[in-house]
Amino acid sequence: MFQPKELFIGLRYTRAKRKNHFVSFIASISIAGVALGVFALIVVLSVMNGFGDELRNRTLSMTSHATLTGFDSSLSDWQAAADKTLQQAGVVAAAPYIQKEVMLSNGSRVSGSLVYGIMPDKEITVSDVGNKMVSGRLSDLRPGEYGIVLGRELARSLGVYEGDRIIVITPQASVTAVGVMPRLRRFRVVGVFEVGMNQFDSGVAYIHMYDAAKLFSMDSHVSGVRLRLQDLFEAPRITRELDHRLGENYWVRDWTQQNKNFFRALKTEKTVMFIILLMVIAVAALNIVSTLMMTVTDKEADIAILRTMGIRPGSIMAIFMVQGAVIGLFGTLTGVALGVPVALNVFEIVHWLEQLFNTDFLPADVYYVSDITADVRFGDVVTYAVSAFIITIMATIYPAWRASRTLPAEALRYE
Question: Which of 105, 171, 216, 324 is a good FRET partner for 309, with 20 to 30 A between their CA atoms?
Answer without folding.
Answer: 324
